[in-house]
Predict the 3D structure of the following.
Amino acid sequence: MKRILLALLGLGAVALAAACGNPGGSTIRIGVIAELTGDMPAVGASCRQAAEMAAAQINVAGGLALGGAKKKIELFIEDNAGKPDQSASAAQKLITQQDVLALVGPNASRYAIPAAEIAERARVVLVTPWATSPKATLDARTGAPKRYVFRACFIDPFQGRVVAKFAQDNLKAKKAAVLYDVASDYNKGIAEYFKQTFEQGGDRVVAFETYTTSDKDFTAQLTKIKSAAPDVIFLPNYYSEVPLQIQQAHRLGIGAPFLGSDSWGSADLIALCGKECEGYYFSTHYDADATATPIARDFIDAYKTRYGKTPDDVAALTYDSFGLLFKAIQAAGRPERQAVRDALAAVPKYEGVTGTMLFHGTGDPVKSAVIEQIKGGKFVWFATVNP
Amino acid sequence: MTYLIQQLLNALQLGSIYALIALGYTMVYGVLIMINFAHGDLFMVGAFFCFLAATYLKLSFVPTLLTSMAGVALLGVLIERLAYKPLRQAPRVSVVITALGVGIFLENFTNALCPYPQGIPPLLPSANWSVGGVSVSALQVLILALSASLMLMLDFMVNRTKVGMAMRAISWDKTIVPLMGVPVDTVISLTFAIGAGLGGAAGVMYGLAYPVIDSNMGIMVGWKAFIAAVVGGIGNIRGAMLGGLILGAVEILVVAIPGVPSTYRDFIVFSLLLVLLIFRPYGILGRPRSVKI
């Protein structure tokens, strides 16, 4: 009796899975994991808006052309609440319950890494728009490149080098200080790459200070940094923390210029920082005003019309992630997870909003970085650095 | 030397904010023998009131401080009346769980209204002085002066006024005191109002010192202030002030010592609580309560 019941239960589960799953459906199901709430909601909002725009553009045209037929894009957007564990469970949910073809997001490295582990194990393509930590596309155990995880942005060994060179060449810094979140993969990684490059030529990092996510008081670390008298202070931290760090530094009488990385690039940085961030530089993925390629122009204009604001780097990279994914799905010719992965891995070059991406057999594109300066409450293009 | 003085000044600033919040825990505990776990979130609401008053009503510093304190005090009384009073005869666990529930409600309610981290506009001139190499900001002076005067006022009120005497009496014995004609409910409401109001003041000062606020900011700060209250001896007002200052000093000095990674900050703070409770289970200034059978 028990066995029959169990068998019935099993059958029921299979039937349910078949009914809910959507293998040969009429739409292409794509999952998006974004930081809609938590400590960086501006990142999640940009990602969601760009994703919805990318899908809408395809759907307005009737859908994505696949072997003669046109298929519409259906988005499933999940919030990871700014938590690593919820990023993993969102990925799991989208893969198993919503049966998505591929995933886009999460954006911050510390959320993308756990989600990427799930995607890799489930053999589903995940494209992260903004996670620059090398760990996102590397297998945690073997250190080999992951097969199913791709990204639309450059990686931190490159970005750390760009920022360190900028500090030495443009700011003529000989002594640098770093304050970074030691509990966050992105911040920790890029801080170390910066240090490596900066110290190569005989210059020194005189203070290498840490804190932990959600700390608000940095006066102890900043006082330490002040007594080391650096020429420049590198803050590779997210946009909601940087204003606090700069304000507290100013109150402690620190006059050295600050330098940032792509985690600064949200318009909210200026809203939170006010005039105190004026004049500082940071590296990022693209500049909406200085970008002249027709693809970028079209994207920026469409985004401005739709949302009434200039797309930030997360929006542009999310759009590029979708572009990359659409290209792979079309190349695969059918909405099948493995086929899409193989097609994506075979893309050698993609012309996106954020510039040209060259793939050399891994999920990490080689592309150029931009240095921006905060001037008059705006991000102003300063230089483009090619790899 | 200047380095050390600067760090002590940093510690004093952080410590006096912890002390103000710790007072709220300790006052409520003193009167009701309950730990108001929603207090950290009242502090958060205080910071949000400050944000609303400064951004939308464009108030200057003093009115902002007063409206925030009044708003949070009112909220504290409301919470007591709606959530805790019906449970006054219930087992203590029910009240603690209710308090946690109220805290989670406040966090999520604020999060629903304000999901984005918000920036508080600078309400004070950003003046900086250098005194013998030590940098002192106007804000720092204000925080120290304001919290010191609030604490002195509270200490005076509890120890020297009739209301304070009523509070101490209720804390001593809740059964006999009403028979002496002390309006227990009013005094309890007042206790909540003052405790929450101080939390609101702490929220404003914290918001000015660390002007990026979000709905979860009260959790960790609340826990730490709770530790400060316990370290000082929960129920003891001077103990809460002392505990707050000690906690601030430990937090800053842990990071200030060269070679200690700041990741150890919370680890050391919470270890301190454990070690202290082994040797002084009632806190530094706390006294054991004798239970009458």
Notes: Residues 5 and 134 of chain B are 7 Å apart (CA to CA). The mean pLDDT of chain B is 89. The longest strand of chain B covers residues 128-131. The longest helix of chain B spans residues 2-32.
